[in-house]
Specification:
InterPro entries: AAA+_ATPase, AAA_lid_NorR, CheY-like_superfamily, Homeodomain-like_sf, HTH_Fis, P-loop_NTPase, Sig_transdc_resp-reg_receiver, Sigma_54_int. The protein is an alpha/beta fold. The protein is built from 19 helices and 16 strands.
C-alpha cells in the first residue's frame, strides 16, 4: 500500500499514546514524528515543516481545562500558518470543540480514538493541505503573470484592466483598436493578443502605416501583379495575403488619408483584396489589430477620420495608460531595465538608491516606457561609480511639455475661475481617453450629452 506524502507530528505527554499513534500512522503516511514535550514544537516545525500536527490539549498532571492546548494551537498557527492542526483530548466537551474550531483547529478528536476514524481524519487533513499548497502555487504563478504579463511589466490597477481585456478578447477574431500615447506599449499589446489567440501558430504581420507612402499603399497592403507599375517586375502578395491565417497589425492607423481610409474600409467590408493591376478578388482571413496615438474620435468629429472605418476597427478598444498614470509600476520597470543594462554593459555592481528612485517616480515621463528604457541605458553607460545618481539621468526641462502639445492648457495662479477649470478638466479627460466621449464623460461624472455641450461651449 502506497503511503500518502504527508508529514505529521503527534504531540502528547503520554509515551504509550505516542507509540500507538506512530505505529498506526506510519502505515499510511510518509513521515510521522512524535514528541512528548510541547516546547519542542517550534524547533520541529522549523526543521521538518509539518503538514499536520495532531496536538493533545492537556500536558500538566491532572489538567483538564485544555488551556495548554489552546496556547500551543496559537503558537503553531503563528509559527507555521499553513500547517493544519487537529486537537485531541480525553475530556470531550462540545464548548471546547467549538472554541477549538473557531481558533483555527481543523478538527477535534477524542481519546481513546478509533483507528479507522483517526486515519480518515488525518487523510482528509492531508488532502486539504495539498489543495491549499496547490492553490498557493497557482496564486504565486498568477501574481508572477500579472507582474510579467506577456511582455508587460506592471501591477497597477490600470494595467490589470488591460490584462483582463486582452485575456477576454484574445481568443476571438474581433477587431481590436489599441489606443495610447507613444511609448506605452501598443505593439507589445498587439503581440500579446496574437500569442494568446487561436492564430498564434500563424504569422503576426506588422505594417507601420505612418511609413507607407500614399502611392505605395495599395501595393504594400493588397499586393500587385507583374507590370502593374514601372518597378513591378514580378507578382507580389500584399500584407493582407501574407498574414493569412494570422494577425495583421496596422500601426499608426490615424495617419491614413481619407482616400486610403476608403480603400481600407472596402477591403474590411468585403473581406477580400484585389492586387494592383488585376481584377481578380482574393479572399482574406486575418485577425485585424490597429493602433494609434491620435485622438480618432476627435478626428471623426473634425471629418479627418471616417466614422464607418472606426466602427469597423474598434469592435473592442484597449486603452494603454501613460506611465504617469501608473506610477506604482515605475519602480518595477526601472529595476527591470537596470538588470537588462547591467548585464549588457557588464555593470553587475551598479545600484539604484532610494533618492534616485524617488526622483524617477516623480518625473512625468512624457515619452512613457520607451523614454524610461532609454534613460536607464544612458545612465548605466555614463555612470562613473557603482551608484546611479540623479545627475546620471536626463529629465526634460519642461515636464509639462506633453500637456501643452496635446492641447491641455496650463493655468497660472491668477486664473482659477470655474470656467477655466472646467475647460481644463474637459480637455484632460478627452486627452486621457483619446477622444472617447463615453469614457471621458464617465471619468468626469457627467452624461455624454452634457460633455458634448461643454465641448461646444469651450470650442474644443
Amino acid at each position: 500500500m502506497s503511503k500518502i506524502a504527508c508529514k505529521i507530528l503527534v504531540v502528547d505527554d503520554e509515551e504509550d499514546i505516542l507509540l500507538a499513534g506512530k505505529l498506526l500512522l506510519k502505515q499510511h503516511f510518509a513521515t510521522v514524528k512524535t514528541t512528548s514535550d510541547p516546547y519542542q514544537i517550534p524547533a520541529l516545525l522549523q526543521e521538518h515543516g509539518f503538514d499536520v500536527v495532531l496536538l493533545d490539549m492537556n500536558y500538566s498532571t491532572g489538567a483538564t481545562s485544555s488551556k495548554e492546548g489552546f496556547h500551543w494551537l496559537k503558537q503553531i498557527l503563528q509559527l507555521s500558518p499553513k500547517t493544519t492542526v487537529i486537537l485531541m483530548t480525553a475530556y470531550g466537551d462540545i464548548e471546547i470543540a467549538v472554541r477549538a474550531l473557531k481558533e483555527g483547529a481543523a478538527d477535534f478528536v477524542l481519546k481513546p480514538w478509533q483507528n479507522d476514524k483517526l486515519v480518515a481524519v488525518l487523510k482528509t487533513a492531508c488532502q486539504q493541505q495539498s489543495i491549499r499548497v496547490k492553490r498557493s502555487a497557482e496564486s504565486a504563478e498568477h501574481n508572477n503573470t500579472v507582474y510579467h504579463y506577456d511582455g508587460f511589466i506592471g501591477v497597477s490597477q490600470a494595467m490589470q484592466r488591460v490584462y483582463q481585456t486582452i485575456d477576454k478578447v484574445a481568443g476571438t477574431d474581433a477587431n481590436v483598436l489599441i489606443l495610447g500615447e507613444n511609448g506605452t506599449g501598443k505593439e507589445v499589446a498587439a503581440r500579446a493578443l496574437h500569442r494568446k489567440s487561436k492564430r498564434a501558430a500563424h504569422v503576426f504581420e506588422k505594417v507601420d502605416l505612418g511609413a507607407v507612402s500614399e502611392t505605395l499603399f495599395e501595393s504594400e497592403l493588397f499586393g500587385h501583379a507583374k507590370g502593374a507599375y514601372t518597378d513591378a517586375k514580378e507578382d507580389r502578395a500584399g500584407r493582407f495575403e501574407a498574414a493569412t491565417g494570422g494577425s495583421l497589425f496596422l500601426d499608426e492607423i490615424g495617419n491614413l488619408s481619407p482616400g486610403l481610409q476608403a480603400k481600407l474600409l472596402t477591403v474590411l467590408q468585403s473581406r477580400q483584396i484585389i492586387r494592383l493591376g488585376t481584377n481578380k478578388p482574393r479572399p482574406i482571413d486575418v485577425r485585424l489589430i490597429c493602433a494609434t496615438n491620435m485622438p480618432l474620435y476627435q478626428m471623426v468629429r473634425e471629418g479627418a477620420f471616417r466614422q464607418d472605418l472606426l466602427y469597423r476597427i474598434n469592435t473592442v478598444e484597449i486603452h494603454l495608460p501613460p506611465l504617469r498614470e501608473r506610477r506604482e509600476d515605475i519602480k518595477l520597470l526601472a529595476e527591470h531595465f537596470l538588470n537588462v543594462y547591467r548585464q549588457k554593459y557588464d555593470r553587475e555592481g551598479l545600484q539604484l538608491p532610494i533618492e534616485t528612485m524617488h526622483r524617477l517616480s516623480e518625473y512625468r515621463w512624457p515619452g512613457n516606457i520607451r523614454e524610461l528604457d532609454h534613460a536607464m541605458e544612458r545612465a548605466v553607460i555614463l555612470c562613473d561609480g557603482n551608484v546611479l545618481s540623479i545627475d546620471d539621468f536626463y529629465f526634460a526641462p519642461n515636464e509639462d511639455r506633453v500637456s501643452q502639445e496635446q492641447g491641455v492648457e496650463l493655468i497660472n495662479d491668477q486664473d482659477y475661475t470655474l470656467e477655466t477649470l472646467e475647460k481644463m478638466m474637459v480637455q484632460k479627460a478627452l486627452v486621457k481617453h483619446a477622444g472617447n466621449i463615453t469614457h471621458a464623460a464617465k471619468d468626469l461624472g457627467i452624461t455624454r450629452t452634457a460633455l458634448y455641450r461643454r465641448i461646444e461651449k469651450h470650442g474644443l
